[in-house]
Amino acid sequence: MLGVGEESIATTSIGIGAWLGTIMLFNVWVLIWPNQKKVLGIVSATDDEKASAKRVAFLASRTNTMLSIPMLMFMMASNHGLPSVLRNIMFTKAREIPGFFIVH
Question: Which residues contact 1 (CB under 8 A, 6 or more apart)?
Fold first, then answer.
């Protein structure tokens, strides 16, 4: 479904990378940017709202930082392949779990 669980490792890896990128996009437009506007004073907010906004923006930014390396790895793997450890996990061990992948 949407690139994840297909028979091709290239399709699966680009699908996982795309999903990680989608999560990162959501973080920026729904969590980071609206809260940064409060912190920077572009949008009026009380001191309590600013303190809360700082924390939310910080955590979402940290999440994006942590997701960026796996996203890049999976997107590059569609052309260049995955390291053998990940390939074994994704296509050997995961198939042993019923319903783990949705295959069309």
Answer: 102, 104
The whole-model pTM stands at: 0.71
pLDDT digits (tens, 9 = 90+) for 10-29: 788 888 889 999 999 999 99
CA proximity to 27, closest of 69, 72, 70, 57: 57
Q: Coil, helix or strand for 4? A: coil
pLDDT tens for 68-82 read 998 988 888 877 777
Q: Where are the domains of the chain?
A: 26-78
